[in-house]
């Protein structure tokens, strides 16, 4: 019987961007990919939604993997429902978003930017956000999938991050946690955050993803399944 694995997406909220990793992960895991509710106004609401997805995936402990904003949600869930977590994997994420000014600016720029221009904005920022070896065709597919995102969802999650800070609760995580951090992440100081979180988490392992950017899930040389196998094999 395959192990249950629940994947939590980043601020896009779609879960679609795990597409390249799914065939690799499904060899070993029974994978559930969640979509985040766009109109949520507090992290607790998303934790409650995720709890329903976890319950549907398994009646026992699971492996929970969260990317970026999804990592913040996964950490919050693990603290709220420790009995449901067997292992926790956090990719390019954070225990606290350290720049309120960036959140404020991002929120108001997003409100002011015509939604139809977002594809162009993503194209212009694509090379900065993706790992250097990512094929242009993969980036085009990424941009197509991102068309399913909504302004409401982005604004909701940016608001939620204003009150998010679990730094003092990290010692309460009593399960094995793997922190993955891309060393070319220009959106989040992933390596610094991972080091801080690993230092405060009792059963933590940290791994730097060398040569990768924030949106590394579609990079040709990133295999989450192999990384998990290496971490969990004695």
Topology at a glance:
Blueprint: E1 3-8, H1 22-25, E2 29-33, H2 43-57, E3 62-67, H3 69-80, E4 85-91, H4 100-112, H5 118-129, H6 136-145, H7 151-162, E5 177-182, H8 190-200, E6 204-209, H9 224-232
Parallel strand pairs: 1-2, 1-3, 3-4, 4-5, 5-6
Walk me through this protein's architecture.
With 234 residues, this protein is an alpha/beta fold. The protein has helices spanning 22-25, 43-57, 69-80, 100-112, 118-129, 136-145, 151-162, 190-200, 224-232; strands spanning 3-8, 29-33, 62-67, 85-91, 177-182, 204-209. β3, α3 (69-80) and β4 form a beta-alpha-beta unit.
Overall radius of gyration: 17 Å
- Average pLDDT confidence is 92
Approximate helicity band: 40-55%
Give the overall shape, derived from the CA principal axes: globular
How many H/I helical runs? 9
Helix and strand pattern: EHEHEHEHHHHEHEH
Q: How many strands, what sense, and barrel or not for the largest sheet? A: 6 strands, parallel
The parts where pLDDT drops under 50 for at least 5 residues are none
Secondary structure class reads: alpha/beta
Q: How many β-strand stretches?
A: 6
Strand residue percentage: 15-25%
């Amino acid at each position: 019987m395959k192990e249950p694995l629940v994947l939590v997406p980043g601020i896009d909220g779609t879960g679609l961007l795990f597409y390249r990793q799914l065939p690799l992960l499904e060899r070993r895991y029974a994978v559930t990919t969640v979509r985040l509710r766009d109109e949520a106004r507090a992290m607790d609401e998303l934790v409650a939604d995720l709890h329903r997805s976890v319950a549907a995936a398994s009646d026992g402990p699971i492996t929970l993997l969260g990317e970026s904003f999804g990592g913040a949600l996964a950490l919050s869930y693990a603290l709220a429902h420790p009995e449901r977590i067997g292992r926790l994997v956090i990719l390019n994420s954070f225990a606290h978003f350290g720049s309120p000014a960036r959140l404020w600016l991002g929120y108001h720029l997003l409100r002011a930017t015509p939604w139809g221009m977002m594809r162009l904005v993503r194209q212009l920022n694509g090379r900065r956000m993706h790992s250097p070896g990512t094929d242009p065709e993969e980036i085009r597919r990424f941009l197509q999938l991102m068309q399913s995102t909504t302004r409401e969802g982005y604004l909701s999650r940016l608001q939620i991050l204003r009150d998010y800070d679990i730094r003092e609760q990290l010692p309460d995580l009593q399960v094995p946690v793997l922190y993955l951090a891309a060393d070319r992440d220009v959106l989040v100081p992933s390596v610094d955050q991972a080091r801080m979180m690993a230092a405060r988490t009792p059963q933590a392992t940290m791994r730097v993803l060398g040569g990768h950017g924030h949106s590394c899930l579609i990079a040709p040389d990133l295999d989450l399944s192999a990384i998990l196998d290496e971490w969990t094999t004695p």
